[in-house]
Amino acid sequence: MIDKAIYKQILKSSFDAPIDVEFWDGETVHFGEGESIAKIIMHELVPIKEIVAHASLTFGEAYMDGKIEIQGNLQELVTLAYRSQDSFFNNSKFSKLIPKHSHSEKVSKNDVQSHYDIGNDFYEMWLDKTMTYSCAYFASDSDTLEDAQMNKVRHILNKLHAQEGETLLDIGCGWGTLLFTAAKEYGLKATGVTLSQQQYDFVSDKIKAEGLTGQVTVYLEDYRELKEQYDHVTSVGMFEHVGKENLAAYFSKIDQLLVENGTALIHGITGQHKGAGVDAWINKYIFPGGYIPNLAENIDHIMDAHLQVDDLEPLRRHYQKTLEIWTDNFHDVSESVISRYGERFYRMWDLYLQACAASFESGNIDVVQYLLTKGASSTNLPMTRSYIYHADVASGVK
Predict the structure, then answer these.
(1) Of 152, 177, 206, 360, which is the most exposed, with the fewest CB atoms less than 10 Å away?
(2) Where is the active site (predicted)?
(3) What is the pLDDT of residue 274?
């Protein structure tokens, strides 16, 4: 069968460690030398033409539907595929053009709500108590996930060198951990904006419950509609949603939202190589409209917006560890997730979390914190970056 022969050629080059593959007709083939690190079981024939046209999408859907099973560590297997230059993920013979995705305000709202409005109760099942759904910051090996998420928030605020009484805007504020920390621990007047109804309701209720009306404000609104200026702007895990065609406008809007010599801390997933920036499977099932810009793209847009760079910090290993903990937490609640959302939904999210961890582990993607100034770099910041680490220690970042 020609499909099987082609599969053997593809799989032979796709992993830089030995694996076993059991094909749909029962034949098992060992690839590589030594003991296998995993076994791929193909219960059904997935046509080669579909793999060539849409590699990640086709394999992702086959895994969700149970046509493909993995015995062994799924994250490790995907990491190997990313690391192999001849794998179907990296070989240009299997690349494809990704359709453009609209990023109008209406479409952006629908995209965000399709992901974040699954329900707060879903995320509560496997996130930590801070309800923070972005890369944590592990300052020590003993940090719990909750410790590391609070470390991340304080690390961000410390980089800004924010002073009591100043104003802060958080674009894409999530469930508000950064907002409430900024208000309660740093004395800032904090404003958040989100397109998620569930997140907006959660933050609004918490503002009232904690008596912070007037000090913390949240808007259910597109950030592009904001008019006020702020001393500081933060945006965590946001620019991945705006789309390639809107990145220039995103950084330009940050410039508009800052007072002169104000500072911004932009934290987001960033490629450190040139590539498509889009994964078809994740785009269809997890983050509609998502696009991962590379470092050069962002720097170009930052300069075009007349912002200046004060500091760059890659946090790749931190996001890998964050995702690995989320995966363990997700596995711990597998029965609850399956009973509520179904087996296919569970397999989809399990693949998403482990594949993302693999992508960070392999260096396929990174996450970077960009500290920016409106105006000449570091005008209102101390002369050396040691202020960040002194402030981290003072604020309890271990």
Answers:
(1) 206
(2) 356
(3) 85
Q: Is 135 a catalytic residue?
A: no
Secondary element (H or E) of residue 347? helix 343-362
For the chain, list residues with pLDDT below 50: 92-117
387 found inside a domain: yes
Q: Residues 71, 197: one domain? A: no
In the chain, what percentage of residues exceed pLDDT 70? Answer: 90
Number of helices and strands in the chain (H, E): 16, 11
* Contact partners, residue 177, CB within 8 Å, separation at least 6: 130, 131, 132, 149, 150, 153
Helix or strand or coil: residue 241? helix
Burial class (CB in 10 A: 0-12, 13-18, 19+), 18: middle
Indicate whether 210 and 280 sit together in one domain. Answer: yes
> Domain span at residue 64?
1-94
Count of the separate structural domains present in the chain = 2
With respect to residue 100, please indicate whether it lies within any of the assigned structural domains.
no
pLDDT at 106: 45
> What is the structure's pLDDT at 389?
94
Residues 235 and 253: their CA atoms lie apart, in Å, by 12
Is the distance from CB of 253 to CB of 372 less than 8 angstroms? Answer: no
- How far is the C-alpha of 258 from the C-alpha of 121, rounded, in Å? 35
User: Which of 40, 70, 94 is a domain's end point?
Assistant: 94
Tell me how crowded residue 233 is: count the other CB atoms within 10 A of its CB: 29
Active-site residue identified among 153, 162, 356, 381: 356
Q: How far apart are CA 290 and CA 356, in angstroms?
A: 14
The SS3 assignment for 315 reads: coil
Burial class (CB in 10 A: 0-12, 13-18, 19+), 254: buried
Single-letter code of the amino acid located at 353: L
